Hints:
The chain is α/β, with parallel strands linked by helices and 368 residues long. The chain folds into two domains: 2-138 and 331-358, ATPase, nucleotide binding domain (Nucleotidyltransferase, domain 5, 2-Layer Sandwich); 155-327, 2-Layer Sandwich (Nucleotidyltransferase, domain 5), CATH 3.30.420. Helix content is 43%, strand content 20%. It has a six-stranded mixed beta sheet, with helices on both faces. It has a five-stranded mixed beta sheet with strand order 9-8-7-10-11, with helices on both faces. The longest helix has 33 residues, at 258-290. It is globular. The two termini are 27 Å apart.
Amino acid sequence: MIILGIESTCDETGAAILKIVEKEDGQMNVKVLANIISSQIKKHKKFGGVVPQLAAKLHQKNFIPVLEEALQTAKINLPAGGVKDLDKIDLICVAKGPGLIPALLAGVSAAKTLAWGLKKPLVGVNHMEGHIVSSLLETKLKVKSEKLKVFEMPALALLVSGGHTQLVLIESWLRYKILGETRDDAAGEAYDKVAKMLGLGYPGGARIEELAKIGNSKAFNFPRPMEKSGDYDFSFSGLKTSVKYTLDSLKLKLKVLPSVRNTYISDIAASFQAAVIDVLVSKTIRAAQEYKIKTLIIGGGVSINQELRRQLKKSLNKNLPKVKFLAPEKEYSNDNAAMIALAGYFRFKSGEISDWEKVQTEAKLRLK
Ligand code: ZN
């Protein structure tokens, strides 16, 4: 089966083509034939964040070239590839939310037009479900015939990105319970805001991670917000304020001693990152223990962070050594259309097809 995935929830325009081969013995091969992403980061950079109307305009401008490149790369009709391959597509899946409405509209309208024109089934996908299944891309899955069961349940997913921080429990296939989420800034958003304060530019997550490697994570004792709150919610806004106060108090020193400035910046980056990771890891492990999970999944742009992965694995090995850890490849951690295609395919397999007219954007769509 050939599946086209479309992603436009925020500032990445994505088109992906998946080939899924189901075998009689219940094995399933998930092959990504193309995963094309056109990032708008450079265009939003001067505004210090994503501007919804600009995002929508760029999605519209970029979608056709991105789709064409996906078809070229996938070469469904060897060796030519290209737009005439559109008729080889069996299923179209589009992220319908959560996200920025102007951005979502661009992808959803394109998907509806294609579904109508090509007379192909269409599935509207929850973008967060895409992140949950992103670690299954490019893998061989074992599928129990009547019910898809690709990982052992109960499973827990930690979804961390610039837009979201959620802990999601999966007790049965395609059924979700949000155990907790951020009450203010998402983890990735806090990274970006702190990076801006430190003069590291936007987006700053990767830069902070880099500096944290050389900095001393114990140099500043930043708060671990809500670590002991007893629930699974997060809050990163206070931590960001604490970094600001620390920077203010160091201002004089940073001016007088420019030579030690870089050391301070690296130490703040390392101490800030340690605080974020401590909270994420301790809440995730506590939920994992409470719900006796068998699989831990991470996803989202912040899940690329190597220190976060290392700390999670370390704590898992110590506390719950039998739990299986699933993490996506870097390419599939950030927003992408391949994960949307796979999530949509699973929905399709469980009998969910939407009439193209009925697929609507939902800015605040929630997993349930
Ligand atoms: Zn995302």
